[in-house]
Amino acid sequence: MSGVELKGVGKEYARGQRAVDRVTLTVQDHELLVLVGPSGCGKSTLLRMVAGLEEVTEGEIRIGDRVVNDVPPRDRDIAMVFQNYALYPHMSVFDNLAFGLRRRRVPAADVERRVRAAAELLGLERYLARKPRELSGGERQRVALGRAMVREPRVFLFDEPLSNLDANLRVQMRAEIKRLHQRVQGTMIYVTHDQVEAMTLGDRIAVLRGGVLQQVADPFTLYDRPANAFVAGFIGSPSINLFTANLSPSGPVTLSSNGWSLALPEAFGDRLAALRGRAVWVGLRPEDLALAPAGPGGVVPARVEVREPLGNEVLVYWQTPVGALVSRVPGQQAPPVGSEAGLHFAHHRMRFFDPDSEQAVGMVPG
After folding, report:
1. Neighbours of 292 (CB within 10 A)
2. 18-27 and 4-12 as β-strands: parallel, antiparallel, unpaired?
3. What pLDDT is attached to residue 366?
């Protein structure tokens, strides 16, 4: 296997439309890196440039120690899995798995060995004689995975391979891909718009917005220490609570908004010095809002507007002086619609963002 390195890679279409804007990114050997972002952010274009299906306007792409900008797709030693399976309907599962190897004139004994090994790993042994029309969506996607596996490529590329599956099958296939990565130790780049899929699959996640790379980190870092308000809002379900408050210009550090105020510990004076006397965006994850005090922190008065029961917990949507907030409440403890309570949160769980740059400020190290 090999790593993939992108240096200042960009893609510009006619009339100056920029799909990818000078992305620099390294995918380590054996790593599963997920490219995630909203529709139209450039993630599939970036993947297709690695595959050689899109020309690179600027920058350099390396697979291993080889620059591949001008190398045809067939010579890049990559395998790509698409969302539409791209199986040959008139061929059996065995022949679909073997097709690419036979075109490369791989000896028949090696074809047989590779196909049988992939089928065993993916649980396809009993389907080898069937045609794609006789398979379920999940089984077809496993065949598509197997066809990539038998190639034994340097890099696997996945372009939203689960988007056509229903919710239960997506969960099942996520586990299949995770197991595949653990067993074959392949270098994989995986594109999705589903941030839950990204969080569960990726060793690291690269977040794109408008063709610009926003942050690259492991899932826990992205969730706890987002680089900006976009990453904070995109990663996590439900999304982070963001509200605007004014920061006192001098003296004790105080947040205020619509008659609500909160005194912060002195340590916040240094952390938020650049925003004193200005508005600041405050972020709180739904699980950081509680109905009972959990150590030093703040409290905001709230009234229940909507409840969404999820079995073991309830998502409670509140109206507060700082705006609408959502919290996670254990199922048996969720208050009824219309009831009022104080929502508590710990100081150290607050995130702060500059409204002008949207960048995180005052982040606690660690």
Report:
1. 8
2. antiparallel
3. 39
